């Protein structure tokens, strides 16, 4: 490991919700095991998968005690799965990685160094897109050097798979129990308190575009974003419209 800043005490808890991810979860786990920073725990919460996701995870558990599996009894959605992991997290730092995405090997090391050098509580990174089969598409989402609450209301630039939080600085965090956009709602709740999220321009993660996923349905995502403005953030209709127009433009830019 290169460029360490006394990380021995700095455990990173990785939050991974899963549902019917048999085809992808092993790649996700392997990308964590390949990290140059190795003081981590990976808390995988399975949301009642109907395929062999749990079996694949249990095989990984046998050879790596840092991986922990929690099986929910009732299908409850990503927010409950992530919050279940957050309650069990023991690390000073929390990172998020969904069960079909991957990290580059130096992701954790570079990000924790970045945060410690700047004494910041919330960071995120640029990331690349891969197709359903893991092939790099050449598309990169470039992030700004920083973003605040007002900026994030008009954007979806923070990829959940890239976020790292310092729990010592922020206190325990929890995602609102909504079916989608719960990650963005959490980032907004953190930034609303006056915090700023800082971006690393280097792509350190890969986001998988899976056919038929919730995030692949742009109409549903737009509707969910509108509901988040009105029901979670309690914005006025005019403010919601202003944010939504900007969100739609930025989302279009991100995906072309």
From TrEMBL:
InterPro entries: Glyco_trans_2-like (IPR001173), Nucleotide-diphossugar_trans (IPR029044). It comes from the Bacteria. GO terms for molecular function: hexosyltransferase activity. Keywords: Transferase. Belongs to the glycosyltransferase 2 family. The lineage of its organism: Bacteria, Bacillati, Bacillota, Bacilli, Bacillales. This is Glycosyl transferase. Pfam families: Glycos_transf_2. Coiled coil: none annotated. Residues 13-129 form the Glycosyltransferase 2-like domain.
